[in-house]
Design brief:
Elements lengths: L1 E5 L20 E9 L10 H10 L4 E3 L3 E5 L5 E9 L1 H24 L3 E3 L5 E3 L1
Antiparallel strand pairs: 1-2, 2-5, 3-4, 4-5, 6-7
Length: 124
């Protein structure tokens, strides 16, 4: 899983942010969450088969966050604009990560897999 706070930057180093604040002075970013089964996973494994069946082109609906939709590169991606203070952005990024990982973990565990603390998926 990748979780990003995306914003525009100038085209040359040192890549300073541009258009970062809205009219009210709030920081405006795009929150982007991306998930994909690791390329190292054996394509014939039970996990890879489950991933294809469950994720397919349907994607992953995460309650309280939104739908992660499939992109051409195989990543399931969710994006949304968010405006707030530094603190509220940090809270929202942490909340998004927690909810996405909990949802993915629940779906995996219902199929006999476990998402470990180091991000690996094992059969239980």
């Amino acid at each position: 899983m990748w979780l990003d706070a995306v914003f525009e930057t100038e085209g040359a180093e040192p890549f300073s942010p541009i258009n970062l604040r809205d009219e009210s002075g709030q920081i405006q970013i795009t929150i982007r969450s991306q998930i994909k089964l690791a390329g190292k996973v054996n394509k014939r494994s039970a996990l890879a088969q489950w991933w294809r069946q469950q994720m397919g082109t349907e994607g992953l609906e995460v309650a309280g966050v939104g739908a992660h939709c499939i992109r051409e590169n195989g990543w399931f991606v969710y994006t949304r604009l968010f405006s707030g203070s530094e603190e509220s952005i940090a809270r929202e990024l942490a909340r998004t990560a927690e909810v996405v990982l909990r949802t993915l973990s629940h779906r995996l565990s219902s199929a006999g897999f476990e998402l470990t603390g180091d991000g690996k998926i094992v059969v239980v």
